[in-house]
Write the structure tokens for this entry.
Amino acid sequence: PLSLIAVTASTNRSKSDRDPAEWMPPLASYRCTYVDTWVRVKLAWNLSVDQAEYDALAGVLAGC
């Protein structure tokens, strides 16, 4: 359930396959939730994070 988020078609197209280093939800008030979910999925599946992705995640979480 964590990896599925209902969005509009245009939001889905704008995100495409980009990670948080390249794309964030347009609704700023949702970004903390989005990043929290992203990190939880990465941890659950033991997925790697590159430096740009890490920096983007840390930057958002610092403001949450």
User: Anything to note?
Assistant: The mean pLDDT is 91. The helical segments are 9-15, 31-44, 51-61. The two ends are 22 Å apart (CA to CA). The first helix runs from residue 9 to 15.
